[in-house]
Amino acid sequence: MSQTEDQATGRKGQDRLRTFPFAPFEWLLASRYLRTRRREGFVSVIALFSFTGIMLGVATLIIVLSVMNGFRKELLDKIVGINGHIFVSPMDTPLTDYAEVAERLSKVYGIKHAIPLVEGQAFASSNAGGATAGTGVLVRGVRNEDIVKIPGIAGNIKQGTLDGFEEAAGIALGRRVAETLGAQVGDTVILLSPKGARTPFGMTPRQKAYKVSAIFEIGMSEFDSTFVFLPIAEAQAFFDREDDVNTIEIFLNDADKVDDARAALELAAERPILMQDWRQRNRTFFSALEVERNVMFLILTLIVLVAALNIVSGLIMLVKDKSSDIAILRTMGATRGAVMRIFLVTGASIGIVGTLAGFFLGLLITMNLQTIQRTLFPGAWDPTIRFLSEIPAEINSGEVVQVVAMAIVLSVLATIFPSWRAARLDPVQALRYG
């Protein structure tokens, strides 16, 4: 064969390898480099660790963020479900016209309910269980037509009924209050208040017995062990109020639109009022949840970053081991871009497959979190210590997409430097010393 024919053959070989980006032969070589071989066992172990690290990091991120979202939603639903969104209090004169004010406020656009409340501290006791038991409670007086509108109460009655609540002059107890007192529906509970009648010898405590009409369970131990409800007239008499209320609680259709309703509520009240919303009352609590969530996201992102850095070390070792192969490819006509893409695909495949595996694992665990909790850790979640009765979880599709995208981007970025080094390899030096 003549020299001209040799050169022509070489050019044909080069033309075969100089194909479009991400050609089939690039994927073929990348897939071969990912397979386990005895000589490259250590490289494969590093790749396995990288894959496992990214998978666990992504899965943990999805699970933790979903649990934090679930906590926020559940606590917001519980707290707002019984406490309302905006609290209207009088400024100059007592709220003796609460019925008219509440009626006007309830007609404002975006307002769901306006509920007048009498609120005060008391001590509850009962000897229904054979022995006298007592506990401190927060007493709330509400109208008969309003108590059925409070979502945290009306939809969570476990015993008894709220029908005829005002006419019966009964009392509705939280489940944990009832358990502490040993009381059931039909039993008698005695309320004691230090602010009673004034006498020449000072103020005497006031006490009165009420029949238990209903027992409710909100699902948040802090509330179930504290709240009791009375008819508004009984609460006014018990706390010695002259036909007025402490506050009017406003329930909105959308809890996040409190700012939009403020101006309209001030106009509708037609009297000087002081307003607070649920964000002001629970600012510290929800701010702490947000800070904790952001810190957990940062810490768990480092897991994914460390796993991505393992891809770098694995690829560098693979490039060193395959230097002779790279040199042969270059002499056959493979461009530097083709060599770089081969190792880019090799490293990115580990990260992308690990991310997808972590995505499915995270979703699987999150969607079955309560079942896993009840099966593996039946007594580990104590609702008396933690506010809720079980671990909540809510998957936010936007956050899941962000986690998956972040893991894929980190994985691809981690492969750029080793792939660039492979493309810059001098084939002459590699063949001489390889």
UniProtKB/TrEMBL annotation:
It is found in: Cell membrane. It is a multi-pass membrane protein. Residues 298-427 form the ABC3 transporter permease C-terminal domain. GO terms for cellular component: plasma membrane protein complex. Residues 51-266 form the MacB-like periplasmic core domain. It holds the Pfam family FtsX. The keyword Ion transport does not apply. Keywords: Cell membrane, Lipoprotein, Membrane, Transmembrane, Transmembrane helix, Transport. The chain crosses the membrane at residues 42-68, 295-319, 339-365, 400-420. GO terms for biological process: lipoprotein localization to outer membrane; lipoprotein transport. The keyword Transmembrane helix applies. It comes from the Bacteria. PANTHER family: LIPOPROTEIN-RELEASING SYSTEM TRANSMEMBRANE PROTEIN LOLE. Belongs to the ABC-4 integral membrane protein family. LolC/E subfamily. This is Lipoprotein-releasing system permease protein. It comes from Enterovirga rhinocerotis.
